[in-house]
Design a protein that fits this description.
The protein is built from 7 helices and 13 strands. 25% of the residues lie in helices and 26% in strands. Strands 6-7-8-9-12-13 form a 6-stranded mixed β-sheet. The protein is α+β, with helices and mostly antiparallel strands.
Length: 213
């Protein structure tokens, strides 16, 4: 079974982990959460020779979606995700960008909103969609159960969890998403998150201070 390759492309002043996932045998892949710095993302795509098939969004915060409209137009690919509950957040992306000193961000209208139980194709692999609100109302997570791998956006981090002090955030809801959706995936699942280094579900179950009873 071919293992997907991953490249993290940090974008915006928030050092958001825009991720390129691709199949090294076919060079087909996706971009996840292009929050900005579109030319930097396009340079990485060209350097690796990847053919991008679609753009996936985990949630509607500016550092995750702000470059999606321009990148989709440049590449001629569809945008999928997040859950439609994040439509109001996406609509405010340009104004929020100016507030944080990041001009040029644009709202995007996804070609497909995602819901719990949907699937998305990433370089020939089928990933399950989990709706994991709390950090944002429409946050989704992408899971390859067979490959023991997940893209979790800003729900869970190495040593931390997503902030809930932003509009639409709710800490009890976030913790419920983690305990009911992510931890049951299994300790051997490796995940990439929206900021910082990767980790495993097991490592976070053992050492993440937010997950200790």
């Amino acid at each position: 079974m071919t293992q997907l390759k991953a490249m993290i492309i940090p974008v915006t002043a928030f050092a958001q982990n825009c991720t390129m996932l691709w199949n090294p045998e076919t060079n087909a892949g996706v971009i996840i959460d292009p929050g900005g710095d579109v030319e930097q993302i396009r340079a990485a795509i060209e350097a690796e020779g990847v053919t991008i098939e679609r753009i996936l969004l985990t949630h509607g915060h500016l550092d995750h979606v702000g470059g999606a409209a321009d990148l989709a137009q440049a590449l001629g690919v569809p945008v999928e995700g997040p859950h439609e509950a994040d439509r109001p957040l996406i609509a405010q992306v340009a104004e929020q960008g100016l507030k944080y000193g990041i001009p040029g961000l644009k709202p995007v209208t996804p070609d497909r909103w995602l819901e719990e139980g949907d699937t998305v194709e990433i370089a020939g692999k089928t990933f399950e969609v989990l709706h994991c609100p709390g950090h944002a109302p429409g946050h989704v997570v992408f899971v390859d159960r067979e490959g023991r791998f997940a893209i979790v956006g800003d729900v869970l981090f190495k040593g931390s969890v997503g902030r809930t002090d932003l509009p639409g955030g709710d800490h009890p809801t976030l913790m419920r998403s983690i305990h009911e959706k992510l931890l049951p995936l299994g300790d051997d699942v490796t995940f990439l998150c929206g900021h910082g280094p990767h980790s495993t579900i097991g490592e976070e179950r053992r050492s993440n201070p937010f997950l200790q009873d």
